[in-house]
Amino acid sequence: MIFAAACIAAVVLFLERVERGTPCGKVSPLSVTRQSARKEAPGKALTLKTPAREAAEPAAPTAGQQGQPIAVIIDDIGFDLRIVEELAGIPAPIAFAVLPHTPHAVEAARFLHAAGKEILLHLPMEPRSYPEESPGAGALMVDMDERQIRRQLRENLAAVPYVSGVNNHMGSRFMEDEARLTLVMEELKKRGLYFVDSRTTPDSRGSEAANRTGVRFAARSLFIDRVPGYAAAMENLTGPSRRGGENGKPVLMIGHPYPETVRALRDALPRWQAEGVRLVALKTFFRISAEENRNALAASDKASGRKERVR
Questions:
Q1: Cα gap 143→137, rounded to integer Å
Q2: Which of 80, 100, 168, 224 is most exposed, with minimal Cβ within 10 Å?
């Protein structure tokens, strides 16, 4: 009986050592399973799930390579966190423009930054329809003086973390005022930020103000959802309007966090892939556009040289 008791004790000791781990520090599968179960047990509810950080974008095609580059910005972020989470789950380098002083501006920006997304300040500006339509809190108005404009812009930039650039929210009146726009560009230049013109007016002076101050500049080519609904969004994403880019030139699209737009974006991705279209990050879009501009300038200079020799 003493021998039997000793054997039982030895077996129990062995099983305990297997479950706790081997002497060399390896953890048994049973122990791992129990630890995982504890980590995954329900705890404090989170507003947003922690996103998986987006993988680095493959090397971008340079100007002249086959395949049309497209960049996409989603505006008006800061109100609905559920749609932000859904958009962040699209496996593509979409950029997000966050409105300052909205209920979830900071939380959305932090979440998107953790997911590896590019973030812009969606800067409210006075529209021609004001006061019937309000651009919201933090808007730049044409009756502001220099001090007020600079102060309000700094407050807006401080309200949205992780921004790499700015685009205008509304602003059909403010964007026509080159002197005041130049003040905005000067502040962006100090911080190394770019500016994307949403083109809410055909008389925008954004390009001129950016050139004056040396700020990187791009302009919206197409609104995805100017007309609401899934069908209109899909037409803009995949139809003749998108293909209007001459010789596969880069196209910059802006959309909004509507469920129909999200669904259209998801459905457009495989069609773009089949057509050789590539959705690129904004930083890549700027690089491709700059290269195209250099190539166009070189071609123009070469043509001018030929004309001079003919004379």
A1: 16
A2: 80
Q: ∠ CA(301), CA(303), CA(306), 5° rounding?
A: 110
Phi first, then psi, for residue 259 (nearest 5°) are -55, -35
| Range with lowest mean pLDDT among 67-81, 152-166, 203-217, 236-250 | 236-250
131 upstream amide cis, omega within 30 of 0:
yes
Distance (Å) of CA 179 to CA 81, 104, 126, 210: 36, 32, 15, 11
In the three-class reduction of DSSP (H, G, I as helix; E, B as strand; rest coil), residue 265 is classed as: helix
Phi first, then psi: what are they for 149, rounded to 5°?
-65, -50
For the chain, state the CA radius of gyration: 27
Inform me whether the pLDDT recorded for 262 exceeds 70.
Answer: yes
Residue 243: CB partners within 8 Å, gap ≥ 6?
68
141 Cβ contact partners less than 8 Å away, ≥ 6 residues apart? 125, 126, 130, 174
- Give yes or no for a contact between 195 and 157, defined as CB atoms under 8 angstroms apart: no
The residue count for the chain: 311
SS3 state at 272: helix
pLDDT digits (tens, 9 = 90+) for 184-227: 999 999 999 999 999 999 999 999 999 999 999 999 999 999 99
pLDDT value at residue 206: 98
Instruction: Give the dihedral sign, CA 201/125/73/189.
Output: positive
